[in-house]
């Protein structure tokens, strides 16, 4: 089988999680107790055997770089190949491209030097366990130029609104890609194609004044490419708003959802060596997910606590997502709340949000 060349394209992903993306890009947002959203795409690529993975980043990527390091958790700390974090080069006098085509144009060396022959493109707003080897097998069986990955959802949710939809004919090929909101085939921001064809299409699109690869090459398809559609049937969560982040975070408290996402092939993330969570005699914890390093003296119910959270005796946390190293003092009550990292809640404070619109505090604030 030909080798893969990975691309995680963050260029088109908007930072729409309000307070959670004030200081970081969406791909770096913590999720699931100890992960970041980018961990899921990286882990999928790792399990497909990818040795070259590029991240196209444009803004607010300091937190992302700190999290990824040299890529060791995903076996990408290599002498040859590995993980490449590629911002656009603004000083190329020959550059006439725009959008993510500018990113590709200014980082052509990555594609020329990478050993793989098949480009796998992914975003980070869809949390799933797509098997790229299975997608490639289907791609070859169909004899396609491009294969896109979609999921047919049983019920459309608000977070599906911005997603592209995929029309599929009876033979498994794409007959249209659009934004019609009443269509249930959700495009997962994943496609694969031959590297040589990919680069040809990049050059053609730039020469014709285009800006975005997927829209101008695949969706509009001016060159008549044969596009196949692979249906992914596993777990998928769309994270493109505070509301979808909150809903899909708490959905992990359902054991079925948790097992679908984390069982069999573990999701890899940055390693931190911390003591296990400490439960004091006064602690009461029900139906919650707690990471390492927490100290719990109060009540935690239907909530997710990240590493190093402190809940003092007499405090109560319900239906909430508490990110790293937050402190909740005695007597405080939190319900339907998201706290970003390093938030300090003083004693006897009460914060109550709505199930459909949680109360959110920004990083490093005190209440």
TrEMBL record:
<protein>
    <submittedName>
        <fullName>Glucose-1-phosphate adenylyltransferase subunit GlgD</fullName>
        <ecNumber>2.7.7.27</ecNumber>
    </submittedName>
</protein>
<dbReference type="GO" id="GO:0008878">
    <property type="term" value="F:glucose-1-phosphate adenylyltransferase activity"/>
</dbReference>
<dbReference type="InterPro" id="IPR029044">
    <property type="entry name" value="Nucleotide-diphossugar_trans"/>
</dbReference>
<dbReference type="InterPro" id="IPR011831">
    <property type="entry name" value="ADP-Glc_PPase"/>
</dbReference>
<feature type="domain" description="Glucose-1-phosphate adenylyltransferase/Bifunctional protein GlmU-like C-terminal hexapeptide">
    <location>
        <begin position="282"/>
        <end position="353"/>
    </location>
</feature>
<dbReference type="InterPro" id="IPR011004">
    <property type="entry name" value="Trimer_LpxA-like_sf"/>
</dbReference>
<dbReference type="Pfam" id="PF24894">
    <property type="entry name" value="Hexapep_GlmU"/>
</dbReference>
<dbReference type="GO" id="GO:0005978">
    <property type="term" value="P:glycogen biosynthetic process"/>
</dbReference>
<dbReference type="InterPro" id="IPR056818">
    <property type="entry name" value="GlmU/GlgC-like_hexapep"/>
</dbReference>
<dbReference type="InterPro" id="IPR011832">
    <property type="entry name" value="GlgDAde_trans"/>
</dbReference>
<keyword id="KW-0808">Transferase</keyword>
<comment type="similarity">
    <text>Belongs to the bacterial/plant glucose-1-phosphate adenylyltransferase family.</text>
</comment>
<keyword id="KW-0320">Glycogen biosynthesis</keyword>
<dbReference type="InterPro" id="IPR005835">
    <property type="entry name" value="NTP_transferase_dom"/>
</dbReference>
<feature type="domain" description="Nucleotidyl transferase">
    <location>
        <begin position="16"/>
        <end position="155"/>
    </location>
</feature>
<dbReference type="Pfam" id="PF00483">
    <property type="entry name" value="NTP_transferase"/>
</dbReference>
<keyword id="KW-0548">Nucleotidyltransferase</keyword>
């Amino acid at each position: 089988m030909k080798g893969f060349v990975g691309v995680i394209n963050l260029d088109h992903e908007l930072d729409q999680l309000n307070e959670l993306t004030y200081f970081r890009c969406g791909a770096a947002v913590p999720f699931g107790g100890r992960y970041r959203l980018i961990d899921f795409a990286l882990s999928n690529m790792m399990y497909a055997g990818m040795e070259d993975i590029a991240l196209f980043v444009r803004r607010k990527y300091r937190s992302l770089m700190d999290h990824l390091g040299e890529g060791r958790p995903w076996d990408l700390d290599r002498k040859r190949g590995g993980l490449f974090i590629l911002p656009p080069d603004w000083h190329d006098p020959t550059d006439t491209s725009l959008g993510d085509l500018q990113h590709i144009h200014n980082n052509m060396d990555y594609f020329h030097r990478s050993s793989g022959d098949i480009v796998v493109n992914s975003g980070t707003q869809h949390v799933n366990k797509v098997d790229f080897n299975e997608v490639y097998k289907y791609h070859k069986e169909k004899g396609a130029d491009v294969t896109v990955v979609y999921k047919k959802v049983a019920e459309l949710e608000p977070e599906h609104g911005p997603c592209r939809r995929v029309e599929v004919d009876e033979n498994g090929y794409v007959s249209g890609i659009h934004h019609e909101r009443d269509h249930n085939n959700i495009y997962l921001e994943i496609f694969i194609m031959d590297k040589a064809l990919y680069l040809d299409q990049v050059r053609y699109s730039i020469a014709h004044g285009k800006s975005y690869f997927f829209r101008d090459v695949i969706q509009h398809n001016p060159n008549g490419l044969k596009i196949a559609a692979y249906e992914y049937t596993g777990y998928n969560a769309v994270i493109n708003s505070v509301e979808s982040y909150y809903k899909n975070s708490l959905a992990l408290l359902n054991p079925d959802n948790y097992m679908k996402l984390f069982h069999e092939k573990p999701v890899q993330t940055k390693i931190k060596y911390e003591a296990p969570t400490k439960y004091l005699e006064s602690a009461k914890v029900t139906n919650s997910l707690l990471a390492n390093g927490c100290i719990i003296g109060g009540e935690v119910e239907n909530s997710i606590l990240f590493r190093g959270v402190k809940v003092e005796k007499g405090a109560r946390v319900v239906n909430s997502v508490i990110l790293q190293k937050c402190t909740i003092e005695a007597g405080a009550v939190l319900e339907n709340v998201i706290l970003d990292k390093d938030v300090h809640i003083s004693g006897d404070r009460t914060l109550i949000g709505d199930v459909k619109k949680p109360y959110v505090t920004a990083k490093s604030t005190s209440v």
